Amino acid sequence: MNKKTTKKMTICLTIFIICIFIFSIVIFNQTEDIELASTQEAVSNKKIGWGIKRGDNHNQPNLGIENKRIIDKYKGISMGNSEKNYIYLTFDCGYEAGYTEKILEVLKENDVKATFFITAHYLNTQEELVKKMIDEGHIVGNHTVNHKSMPDLTDEKVETEIMDLHKAVYSKFEYEMKYIRPPKGEYSERTVKISNSLGYKTVMWSFAYQDWDEEKQPSQEEAKKKILDNIHPGEVMLLHGNSKTNTEILGDIIKEIKNMGYEFKSLDEFEA
User: Fold this and answer.
1) Which of 13, 200, 240, 250 could hold 195 in an S-S bridge, CB 3.0 to 4.6 Å?
2) Angle, to 10 degrees, between the axis of helix 220-229 and the axis of helix 244-259?
3) Which DSSP letter does residue 199 get?
4) β-bridge pairing 179-180 and 263-265
5) Where are the domains of the chain?
6) Which of the residues are catalytic?
7) Burial class for 62, CB neighbours closer than 10 Å (0-12, 13-18, 19+)
C-alpha cells in the first residue's frame, strides 16, 4: 500500500470518527431534552389529606404551605382575601338525610347563596332537590360519581369519575358544573392537574368540623361555639348536608355571622 493510499484512508477514518462523535452528541442532547421534558410534565401523585391548623381570635388558619401551593398553582380555591370579611358557604352532599329542604328554606330566608357538592348517588336519588338548588341560584359542584379517593385511581378513571357526573348534570338541567371538591378531602398534584385540565377549579376549605356522623351529632351549643369561634376573613366554610345539628342552627349562625360584620358570598364572587 503506497503512502498516498494510506493518507486517504487515514483522512476517511478521521472523518468517520468525527461524524460518529458529532452524531453521539446530538443523540445524547436529544435524549437529555426528552428526559427533561418528561420530568417537567410528570407531577406527584403523593396523597394529601387536607388539614388545617386553626387560628386564634378570628385570624386565618394555617392551611399548610405545600398543600396550599398545589391548590393555588392550578387556580383552585381554599381561602379568600385576609382583608375582606367574606364567608363562602359550602355543603358536601354525598346522600340525602332529609335536611336539604330545610337548609334551602333557611338560605332563602336569609338571602344567602351556597355551593352544594353532590355525588352521582345524590343526583340519581334527589333530582328535584338538585333542580331546586339550581333554580334558587345556588351553585352545584362536582363531588365525583362514587366518592372515591382520587389519588388511588388511574388518570382515565379520575376523568371518568368527574366527567360522567358532569355530563349527567348537564343532560338533566343544561347546567355546567365548574367547581370540584375531592372526595374525603384527599388529592394529589396529579389529580388536581387532571381536574384543572377538564375545566374545574378544585375547592378545599378553611373551616370544617366533625358534623358528618349522624350517630354522633354535636349539640347545638357545641356546634354554634365551634363555628362562631373560628369565623375568619375569606373563610370557605364546609358543612355537611346530612347533619341534623347544622340544619337546626343554620339560621341562627347566619344571623350571628352577619352581626359580626361578615358578608356571605358565592364562589362565583370569590376574591383571593
Assistant:
1) 200
2) 40
3) T
4) unpaired
5) 1-42, 49-269
6) 92, 240
7) middle
Q: What is the pLDDT of residues 18-72, one digit of tens each?
A: 545 444 444 444 443 333 333 335 889 999 999 888 888 999 999 999 899 999 9
- Report how far residue 238's alpha carbon sits from residue 50's, in angstroms, rounded to the nearest whole number: 12
Q: What is the distance between the alpha carbons of residues 231 and 186, in angstroms, rounded to a whole number?
A: 24
| Owner of C-alpha cell 364546609 | 238
Predicted pLDDT at 8: 52
Listed in sequence order, the residues at least 6 apart from 262 whose beta carbon sits closer than 8 Å to its beta carbon are: 85, 86, 87, 231, 233
Supply the CATH classification number for the domain 49-269: 3.20.20.370
Q: Of all helices (H) and strands (E), which one includes residue 86? A: strand 86-93
At 39, list the grid cell.
420530568
